[in-house]
């Protein structure tokens, strides 16, 4: 993929994204929330987030919203990542290293199967 | 925290929780003056002088009545340990500005860390904020105000893979150019 950085490129990206949106049914979006409070950041949340972004980029995942949140009160399990599939309950994962991100993205976000072994019961 | 950029993430997260919709971050390395200065300014709800005093002190903050945790005292300590300082100016209803300076060459100064990843995290995770980044090194500057490019995107989510790639390239090249 060549480098893209001018406003014209941006326009193209926009048009492409719009076309894709029209093609898709309105199936809703998957939300991924990363805990980025002081503790989360110290525990490596930025690298976790980067791994998520890289995954989205590498596999061209559409309809994903990535958000950050502050401390959610499970400090010893940081970095914490929450996944909400359209119409499903929020699932909270703890101690999510960049390696675990790969598993969660593949199994849960892409294939809809909750990764029980990293899940926190809240 | 082992990188100054992680502190930037942390302080900026405070600005987001303070309801700011415009946050500007300046990172200024000046080898001639031997300084590294970071400024984070927001238009959030601001704090009273009493609250400012509280968040600067690691021992009097309590969970229930604060927006800021240990982050500020930690950064203040890091700055003062490397011949620098931290100030916090805040006005209720107007916003808050945190400024911190380090002696660039000081042996205890933390490395700056990955600027691109940090700015990207902020930009993508709080898409509703108007981010203004200014990264300077010895007088050269990479300046980015996300307004124009958000207008251009016109509602396409920032986390669209192509958009992520676009922003990452933009930041990487911008930061590279001033080195």
List the main descriptive attributes of the protein structure presented here.
heterodimer, A: 122 residues, alpha+beta, Glutaredoxin, four-stranded mixed β-sheet, 40% helix, 16% strand, B: 179 residues, Heat Shock Protein 90, six-stranded mixed β-sheet, 6 helices, 6 strands, 26% strand, globular
Can you characterise this structure?
The complex is a heterodimer of chains A (122) and B (179). Chain A is an alpha+beta fold. Chain A has helices spanning 7-23, 38-42, 45-58, 98-110; strands spanning 30-35, 64-69, 81-84, 91-93. A four-stranded mixed sheet of chain A has the order 2-1-3-4, with helices on one face. In chain A, helix 3 (45-58) packs across helix 4. Chain B has one domain (4-177): 2-Layer Sandwich (Heat Shock Protein 90). Chain B has helices at 4-17, 49-56, 71-81, 115-125, 147-153, 161-177, and strands at residues 22-30, 35-42, 85-91, 95-103, 130-137, 140-145. A six-stranded mixed sheet of chain B has the order 3-4-2-1-5-6. In chain B, a hairpin with a 3-residue loop joins strand 3 and strand 4. Classes of the chains: A alpha+beta (122), B alpha+beta (179). The A-B interface holds A 1, 3-5, 7, 9-11, 13-14, 16-18, 34, 36-38, 41-42, 46, 49-50, 53, 56-57, 60-62, 64-68, 70-71 and B 1, 5-6, 9-10, 13, 16-17, 69-71, 74, 114, 117-118, 120-121, 124-126, 148-149, 152-154, 156-157, 159-166, 169-170, 173.
Q: What name is given to the CATH topology of chain A?
A: Glutaredoxin
Number of beta-strand segments of chain B: 6
Strand % of chain B is 25-35%
Strand order of the largest sheet of chain A: 2-1-3-4
Mean pLDDT of chain B: 90
| Main sheet specs of chain A | 4 strands, mixed
């Amino acid at each position: 993929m060549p480098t893209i950085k001018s406003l014209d490129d941006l326009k193209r990206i926009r048009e492409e994204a719009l076309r894709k949106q029209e093609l898709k049914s309105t199936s809703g979006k998957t939300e991924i929330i990363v805990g980025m409070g002081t503790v989360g950041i110290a525990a490596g949340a930025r690298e976790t987030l980067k791994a998520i972004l890289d995954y989205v980029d590498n596999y061209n995942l559409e309809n994903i919203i990535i958000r950050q949140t502050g401390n959610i009160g499970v400090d010893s399990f940081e970095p914490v990542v929450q996944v909400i599939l359209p119409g499903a309950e929020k699932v909270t994962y703890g101690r999510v290293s960049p390696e675990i991100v790969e598993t969660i993205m593949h199994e849960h976000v892409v294939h809809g199967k909750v990764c029980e072994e990293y899940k926190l019961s809240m | 925290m082992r990188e100054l950029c992680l502190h930037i993430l942390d302080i900026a997260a405070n600005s987001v929780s303070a309801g700011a919709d415009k946050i500007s971050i300046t990172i200024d390395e000046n080898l001639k003056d031997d300084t590294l200065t970071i400024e984070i300014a927001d238009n959030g709800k601001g704090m009273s002088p009493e609250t400012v005093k509280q968040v600067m002190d690691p021992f009097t903050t309590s969970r229930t009545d604060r927006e800021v945790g240990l982050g500020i005292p930690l950064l203040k300590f890091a700055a003062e340990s490397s011949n620098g300082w931290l100030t916090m100016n805040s006005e209720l209803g107007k916003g808050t500005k945190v400024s911190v300076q380090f002696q660039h060459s000081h042996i205890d100064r933390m490395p700056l860390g990955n600027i691109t990843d940090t700015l990207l995290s902020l930009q993508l995770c709080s898409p509703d904020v108007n981010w203004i980044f200014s990264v300077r090194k010895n007088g050269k500057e990479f300046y980015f105000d996300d307004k124009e490019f958000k207008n251009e995107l016109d509602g396409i989510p920032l986390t669209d893979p192509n958009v992520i790639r676009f922003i990452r390239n933009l930041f990487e090249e911008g930061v590279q150019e001033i080195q």
